[in-house]
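Standup notes, structure subgroup. Blocker cleared on the iron/sulfur cluster input:
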Amino acid sequence: MTDFTEIKNNLKKIGYKVTTFEKGCEAAEYIGRAIKDSTVGIGGSQTIKELNLYEVLINNNNDVYWHWIMEPETAITNAMTADYYITSVNAIAQSGEMVNIDGRGNRVSASLYGHKKVFYIIGKNKITKTYDDAIYRARNVAAPLNAKRLNKKTPCAVSGNGCANCNSPERICKAMVTYWGPMSGMETEVILIDENYGY
Ligand code: SF4
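Run returned:
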């Protein structure tokens, strides 16, 4: 079993609420209890998909906006101002910094502003020793796997050898955001799961 003590303490020091779970299904039940009678935006996230969180949330909320399963432009626009926003990160350091890379910008921008609360849901596979390792993971592990999932003709997707900092027209890495702490005026909770989820 993973010892989350160090990362949990560091995240709390930075100002996050932190909750840990052994299993993803427990985390999904927790989210289902925490978000009700509200509007919810969901970021493009394999973790959220694997946890079936859309299905968990849709029955008890007014609207759930997720561009992976509905008309993208409307879903993205509505998700930006939903009461709650849930997503994951590409990497999280033991020291508490979280890193996300985005191609369209909707996920990182929606995670930064405009909600009552943001949840980051993170499997143990995303945890790195240092902040530099987190950046490395985001660029060389998460982004190439996402490029492959999207069938992009980028060097990373074709070679499987990590990021080539490409100039490809299909490049998916257009911005990289580090979350140094919760945004002012918006509650933010980090949920750590002792299982692997997403990339
Ligand atoms: S910059 Fe290009 S090569 Fe590097 S991960 Fe992104 S899409 Fe792949």
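Discussed briefly. The pocket of iron/sulfur cluster is lined by residues 139, 143-144, 147, 154-156, 163-166, 168, 171-173 (CB under 6 Å).
Next: hand off to the docking folks.
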